[in-house]
Write a structure and sequence with these properties.
Order of helices and strands: EEHHEHHHEHEHHHE
Largest sheet: 2 strands, antiparallel
Strand content: 5-15%
Number of helices: 9
Number of strands: 6
Length: 216
Amino acid sequence: MGISSSLKIAIPAITVPAVAGFSYFSSTKEDYEQDSLKSLIEWGGRRKVLSVNSDRHDNIWDEIVKEYKNGSFLKVDGISKDSPNKSQVKKYCKRAANFTDVKWFNLYRSLCTRGTLIDQMNADLSSQNKSWLTSTTESDWNDLKTAYGDGQGKDLLIPSKEQEKIKVQRDNITLQLLMGWCSSVSSKLYVNTEEENYKVAKFNCTKESVKQPKSN
């Protein structure tokens, strides 16, 4: 999809529990009119279009249904407000994927796609000046490794690489294990704040952001 310097528009992505932060797509009006909403999401690359033809993302669909019922969305044709279910939402999203009118973009983005764990976490922690640590410098992870080894996170232990049900005990944690797990889980889709990966990553993979000195 080509981007020209003329007639640019910005499409804001509304912030609801299913959305990681606030972002903009910027392209030409002509480009947006000829592309489907699904293709725009895929082009943006930050969110995953959820499967409407399988149960692969059903745990996330269940969360979206809860968010819809709890008032995160306005009433959508074909989806009951009082007793919505994932079949209704999937049916709408399957149809809406082919829409080309950008007025439906925010709704499709919020109702039919999901952001990654790292994007949602960074949005949730931005007010605390914390973010997901992505540094590949081992020394930057020393504080997190120490907190893990000291048991400050109590039961918030990362799984072993061999068997996910077996946790890496405090005495066995290494910088490599911690960095490797945080990197691997960062691209998983966000479910909710009570999901295991979210809670474990919040303690073990996030750190106070370094404030840049003000220039004179």
